Give the backbone structure.
Amino acid sequence: MKVFLFLADGFEVIEAMTPVDVLRRGGVDITTVSLTNSLTVTSSNGVVIKADATLGSVDILGGDALILPGGYPGYENLKKNDAVGRAARLYYETGRLVASICGAPIVLQHYGIGNGHKVTGHSCIKDSMRDFIYTGKPVEKDGVLLTAIGAGHALEFSMAILESLCGPEAVIKVKPGMEL
């Protein structure tokens, strides 16, 4: 399994790092990708993270799943990046998992990806998700779209990604090491 997680300046730390932690524990090859030419990305609350790669240095189209973390203005920066939109569309259209949390499902709306599907997301984007069935659930999976409402559900979101990619046995294996 190969997964890419986009890091845009203003990302939410918990929403980005929890999937990285859970998936790596589950044996999934996950690469964090900075949207700029710098590996250094700054979160919404000032935490500086060094990404694994920059957008121009990896083949983001060659993965099995794509993760879009939220955070403000991180999700707006994701939405403004056409490479993110093209990648998310390609993953969706080729049946690969597209996972987004908090405000990041707005990227799906902006690029017209998965219209008509059930989604969830932070309450601040609820009214903008007019082309979807907004459920407000903590985590929602509809086809290859997996969405979550926000930072408080980052672990549940991450476990759902792991299960979608590797099956329930992978989640069962990871939980004891996390005292779950």
Remarks:
- The first helix runs from residue 13 to 25.
